[in-house]
Write a structure and sequence with these properties.
The protein has about 375 residues and is α/β, with parallel strands linked by helices. Helices cover about 45% and strands about 10% of the residues. It folds into three domains: about 5-80, DNA polymerase, domain 1; about 115-300, 3-Layer(aba) Sandwich (Rossmann fold), CATH 3.40.50; about 305-365, Arc Repressor Mutant, subunit A (Orthogonal Bundle), CATH 1.10.10.10. β11 and β12 (about 365) form a beta hairpin. The longest helix is centred in the middle third of the chain and has 14 residues, at about 130-145.
Amino acid sequence: MTENLEELEALVALKMCDGIGDITASKLISHCGGAAAVFKEKSKHLSTIPGVADRIYDLLHSQVNWQNVQKEVDYITKNNLNHVSFTDAQYPQSLLKTDSPPVLLFFTGPIEHLNQKPCISIVGTRFATPYGVQFVDELLQSAKDTDLIVISGMAVGIDIAAHKASVRCGVPTFGIVAHGFDTFYPAIHWDFSRSLPNHNGGIVTEFFSGEAPNRENFPKRNRIIAGLSKATVVVEAAKKGGALITAQYARQYKRDLFVLPGRYYDKFSEGCNFLLKSKVARPIFSANELLSELGFSKTSEKLHQPDFSHLSEKEVQIINILRTNKQSTMDAIAAKAALSISDCATILFNMEMAGIVNCLPGKSYGLSCV
């Protein structure tokens, strides 16, 4: 983390300087020995840096609004906002292997874990189907005994399903967002995002306060998702959208790319099936097979059988119903368990709060990581 206030101000200034992107900023910092040193360097020396425009000195001294810089630094220090530059040891090393790593990141949670454990990203449509959500749950259930971190974008649909399944299964998860820390998008996930550090995860962004989740920010966010991950898993995706942009970055960074095949007529499987047809991604046929291909082996389930001794007879009965049927509607569960709808709703609600079952799209229920 950047402790020197002068260095932090210079980093913020470089990020805010019109005409200077992350690639140029990193070249300047590396050549001069620090961000603060960049603004002290003479014009003739700056112009000799390979790949840096001759007018760089003029940009540095005419295109920085130092009032805005000070305002942002005040926000960072006042809110004790965690930050890390690309020269710091805590900075995610996998991002440094991409062509445009952000020179400055803001984060919550133990970001150092991103250097200690392998990461996979799970991305997909905002309009997740029970098929996609069920696969995500199965994947995280299989991954709960592995040394893995899940990366996604905190969006509704597949993204949030991956984050929530990770938390339920005890798998650390980090959300990458397309805005500053003074807001949250979507707002319905704000409370959940604040809980992630309690589960060894957190939130990461490259954006300053006041930067809203504008359309152009999402591809930038997606490059970080792909860059952090040794593999990207596309669960459901239409022909166009953020999931396919993340997949393109994964290919560009030469990371593994996997997709969940879908029915040929499903709108939100068209993107996945296109990637398969183009032979740029590998199909997923089971959660355990995917983890095996990534080099993870699941610990024997016999060693981790959950303890149901505290559950009621009806709760255990519902678990057995869902084990047999994978997912069922409340009406079907109530009928098989000989329960009234109201009693079944109460029991399912309590089981959901306990993390035993998961409410799926279409008013269906499935087992969580138990």
